[in-house]
Design brief:
about 100 residues; alpha/beta; three-stranded parallel beta sheet; single chain; about 40% helix
């Protein structure tokens, strides 16, 4: 049986980010779980923060730069996808007059 490919897309904003750490943990547990079923897996991690300018240029021009195209192809050709995004939590503010 061939090795399964897992694409992990992390949308964290900082470096290092808790989003990336979660993505790494999810990927590791997925590989471990698959290994328990005698399935080998490799992981390719894509950090969207690294492609921010390329994504903007792609949206404006309709053309993906080579690095972004490679990242897109990694996701499209993967057997599985793990996508992790940050959550911006805001709490209600009470204004006093």
């Amino acid at each position: 049986m061939s090795t399964r490919r897992i694409a992990v897309v992390s949308a964290g904003l900082s470096n290092p980010s808790s989003t990336r750490m979660l993505a790494d943990r999810l990927a590791a547990e997925t590989v471990k779980s698959l290994a328990g079923h005698d399935i080998q897996a490799s992981v390719d991690v894509i950090e969207l923060r690294d492609y921010a300018h390329d994504i903007t240029n792609n949206l404006l021009t309709g053309f993906a730069p080579p690095a972004l195209e490679t990242a897109i192809n990694t996701v499209v050709s993967a057997d599985a996808l793990i996508a992790v995004s940050y959550t911006h939590l805001t709490l209600p503010t009470i204004y006093s007059v």
